[in-house]
Specification:
Layout (H helix, E strand, L loop, with lengths): L1 H11 L21 E2 L4 E2 L16 E12 L6 E15 L2 E22 L3 E24 L5 E20 L2 E21 L4 E12 L15 E11 L1
């Protein structure tokens, strides 16, 4: 009788399920960490934006332009070479202080009048100028583009070699003239060390020409130039 009870209980017991082994070397599954309080996956932390590149402090600028004289003279090519020290004055505001030199040429034949001598329709002036200027720039940098737009001005002296003729009289002069310029610029950065842009400014200088009556010694011109900037 007892043997029959044991056989009945053994046959009625459920089979034992096997337990899979745990591999200790297997890393835990990667993914967002679950928040036990909320029961949902916590979002990943946002990436920190990269800091903007620092402004390179030394820049060499090369300008190739066209001078359009205010008087009756021909437009002529001009060049400028500038060395600037640049700095960030405030967020979005860039300043530069430097030195500029180069070459400008003025030439043209025009009609001039004199109260005593009358009219000379073929008065001629030719002038070579080498500017020696201190230059100041102040610009605003765009927030979403590598663009700086601003104002620039220069002041100093021009070394001038001048030849003139009017009413049959000729004269030549080598002198140093006070000179200045004022205008604006647009600079587009093509990389950390190269920029291109445009410059427009009024460049002023004037000389006295006592040997050639009726002829103005105004050498001023409007300069429009393309600009390349190399930063270090």
């Amino acid at each position: 009788m007892w043997l029959s009870v044991v056989l009945v209980l053994t046959a009625a017991a459920p089979p034992e399920l096997p337990i899979p082994p745990i591999d200790a070397a297997e890393p835990p599954a990667s993914g967002p960490v679950a928040d036990p309080a909320a029961g949902v996956a916590a979002p990943a932390a946002p990436a920190t934006p990269a800091a903007p590149a620092a402004l390179k402090p030394i820049a060499v600028g090369l300008e190739l332009g066209l001078d359009i004289p205010g008087a009756q003279r021909f437009p002529m090519a001009s060049t400028r070479l500038a060395l600037d020290w640049r700095t960030t004055l405030a967020p979005g505001i860039v300043g530069a202080l430097g030195f500029a030199t180069g070459y400008s040429y003025v030439a043209g034949e025009q009609s001039v009048a004199d109260p005593v001598l009358g009219v000379d329709d073929h008065a001629l002036l030719m002038a070579h100028r080498i500017p020696l200027r201190a230059r100041l720039r102040l610009g605003i940098a765009a927030e979403d583009a590598p663009v700086v737009v601003g104002l620039q001005g220069s002041g100093g002296a021009d070394v001038a070699l001048i030849g003139a003729a009017s009413f049959g009289r000729t004269g030549s002069l080598t002198t140093v003239l006070p000179a200045y310029s004022l205008g604006g610029f647009l600079d587009v950065a093509m990389g950390p060390a190269l920029g291109i842009g445009v410059v427009g400014e009024w460049d002023s200088a004037s000389a006295e020409l006592p040997a050639t009556p009726g002829l103005s010694g105004d050498l001023s011109a409007f300069r429009l130039a393309v600009l390349m900037t190399f930063a270090f």
